[in-house]
Each structure stands twice: as structure tokens, then as C-alpha cells.
């Protein structure tokens, strides 16, 4: 009986020790940075004369990126993902809904406007070329991810709020297909995110009520966080 107990105890100890050794061994096929969450401040480049930003124009993004290492050290590779993005643009550009479309004009300062914005909800497909100095056992490392992002606008809405009324409606003049370049750089948890759109937020050929072209190019700068 004692021999059986000793045998099982020995076998159990060997199993535990083997499990501990396996846990301590680095994973040579590790993957990094497959989930992301980002928060940005949204700038507007190439905006029409007289259009100014107001309040806090912000963006939120999150999603999954498949990590695809291309070398043995797994510190160089690609990333291809799918995510969601929300972006708001607070300006003095007012969108007025008409029976046959929309009119774009600068806000009248006498209206006492509290909030005036255009917002979009998107499905996004990020593609990255990934450089990092990670190792199988080191979870804090520098990263530089360069790439592009495609997007499709699920819905765009304009909203104006004054002391007397509130108006909100969908804007079909927003260009649904989005594309631009991006860069993510940082160490460990905190990383800088920059995205510049290659196309206008609104469809081509639109003008303000003054006749000036309605140019409105998004530029987003903020923080992005990667996990797992």
C-alpha cells in the first residue's frame, strides 16, 4: 500500500514539475496585438473658408487584427483586421435638410447654437505592416505599425441643437467608401495613432450656399491600445 502511495505521489510530483516547466518555456509561435481600442481627436483638413471646428470632435475605434508574423523572430509581419469606428465633427457648418436634398451653410451666430455636428458610423478594415522588438518572453516592446484603412459608412447623421429647437437627420451626401493611410507608434500600453483620409467626407461636386466647394478631409490623431 505504501509502495502504491509513494508511486502515485511520485507520479503526481513529476506531472506538476513537467507542467511547470512547460509553462515556463516561451511560446516560439506567439502572436501579439490582435485586439485594439483607440480614441482620437478629429481634425478637418482642407476645409472651406469660414468653417471652424468647435467643441471636442472625437473618434472611437475598436476591433480585431490577425497577427501574421513573416520571420522566425516574429518581430516583423503583417496585420489584417475588421473593426468598428465612430467619428464626430463639431463645426459651424450647418447641414439643412430640404425636400430634394441638403443645403450646406455657415451657422448664423444669432441662433444661439449649443451643438452642431456631423457623425459617422463605419465598418473598417485595417491593414498593417508591423515592426516591433518583441520576444517570446517579453511583453513590453516598441512597435511601429504602418498601413492603410478601408471603411464603409453604415450611417451618417447631422445634428443641430439650439435653445429653441433640435434637428437631427441622416445625411446621404456622405461618401460611404472611405480610404486613407495610418501609422501607430509607441511602447507597451500607450501608442500614438495617426490616420489621414485620402478622400473627402462628403461626395464630390457639393458646394456651400456661397458656391465654394465643400471640401472636408478627416485627419485623426490620438491613442491606440493593443492587447493579446
Automatic annotation (TrEMBL):
<feature type="domain" description="Outer membrane protein beta-barrel">
    <location>
        <begin position="19"/>
        <end position="202"/>
    </location>
</feature>
<dbReference type="InterPro" id="IPR025665">
    <property type="entry name" value="Beta-barrel_OMP_2"/>
</dbReference>
<protein>
    <submittedName>
        <fullName>Outer membrane beta-barrel protein</fullName>
    </submittedName>
</protein>
<feature type="signal peptide">
    <location>
        <begin position="1"/>
        <end position="19"/>
    </location>
</feature>
<keyword id="KW-0732">Signal</keyword>
<dbReference type="Pfam" id="PF13568">
    <property type="entry name" value="OMP_b-brl_2"/>
</dbReference>
Amino acid at each position: 500500500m505504501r509502495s502504491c502511495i509513494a508511486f502515485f505521489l511520485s507520479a503526481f510530483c513529476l506531472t506538476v514539475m513537467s507542467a511547470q516547466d512547460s509553462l515556463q518555456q516561451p511560446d516560439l509561435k506567439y502572436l501579439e496585438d490582435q485586439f485594439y481600442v483607440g480614441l482620437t481627436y478629429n481634425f478637418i483638413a482642407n476645409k472651406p473658408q469660414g468653417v471652424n471646428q468647435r467643441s471636442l470632435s472625437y473618434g472611437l475605434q475598436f476591433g480585431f487584427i490577425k497577427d501574421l508574423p513573416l520571420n522566425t523572430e516574429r518581430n516583423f509581419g503583417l496585420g489584417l483586421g475588421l473593426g468598428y469606428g465612430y467619428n464626430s465633427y463639431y463645426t459651424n457648418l450647418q447641414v439643412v435638410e430640404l425636400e430634394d436634398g441638403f443645403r450646406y451653410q455657415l451657422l448664423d451666430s444669432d441662433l444661439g447654437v449649443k451643438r452642431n455636428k456631423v457623425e459617422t458610423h463605419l465598418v473598417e478594415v485595417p491593414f498593417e505592416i508591423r515592426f516591433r522588438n518583441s520576444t517570446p518572453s517579453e511583453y513590453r516592446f516598441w512597435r511601429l505599425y504602418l498601413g492603410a484603412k478601408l471603411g464603409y459608412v453604415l450611417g451618417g447623421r447631422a445634428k443641430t441643437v439650439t435653445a429653441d429647437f433640435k434637428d437631427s437627420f441622416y445625411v446621404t451626401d456622405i461618401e460611404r467608401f472611405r480610404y486613407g493611410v495610418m501609422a501607430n507608434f509607441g511602447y507597451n500600453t500607450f501608442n500614438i495613432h495617426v490616420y489621414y483620409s485620402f478622400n473627402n467626407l462628403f461626395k464630390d461636386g457639393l458646394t456651400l450656399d456661397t458656391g465654394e466647394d465643400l471640401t472636408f478631409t478627416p485627419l485623426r490623431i490620438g491613442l491606440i491600445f493593443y492587447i493579446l
